[in-house]
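FORM 7B: Structural annotation worksheet

SECTION A. Query
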Amino acid sequence: MPSVSSMTPIVATLRAAGCVFAEDEARLLVSTAGDPTELAAMVDRRVAGLPLEHVLGWAEFRDLRIAVDPGVFVPRRRTGFLVEQAVALARPGAVVVDLCCGSGALGAAVAAEVAGVEVYAADIDPAAVRCARRNIAADRVYEGDLYEPLPASLRGRIDVLIANTPYVPTEDIQLLPSEARIHEPRVALDGGSDGLDVQRRVAAAAPDWLAPGGGLLVETSERQTALTVEVFRAAGLRARVVESEELYATVVIGTRAHG
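SECTION B. Predicted structure
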């Protein structure tokens, strides 16, 4: 554990740069850096506004240390609620797909929490794919647009389809914190005019890929929930909504009918 005296100047520097949790960040930076030169460079990058996770090279998510490279979407704490719902649906041996996977954090978490699941992942962003291949089985991470790169053998066999699609309306991107707006890929944030463009594409094709009784799970905002439910029902999925007040998280689950 770093000494208080060694961290005091770093804490002061971080606090002056506007870091709200300066003490916690200083502790993480000091414990991650290999030497004083690397530590100084890391502090400089954080002060310059890079997300802490990009500076550290990892993010804590569901008690896992997930590799997160610069320019890759950082998994949010609230998205742990999406994982909880996926874990509740998955059974040992289930086929799980993490679509729009980013770093692969969701797939990695489900794999860690449910024994024997087969986890596959895909993302359109090459940087995200490279990162995800460090967090889950590299030979099951595919690069391409939504379902397009997935093996055809998965069609009709997916038990749990997690799709943490971008859902920020285009006009609202400017309102995001600078860490997200500047340092995360727009493709991971921008959901089109009403935020649901990618969700619509995912839902429309989901019945072809889901196993009978399989579920599609997406995160959405409270104000978009009714629209997301409509999107799922239009695709022929039975939709239900689950919420966490603690995490301020909303998840819509769409189930493919049996038979």
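SECTION C. Observations
Residues 53 and 67 are 9 Å apart (CA to CA). The radius of gyration is 19 Å.

SECTION D. Sign-off
Analyst initials: ____
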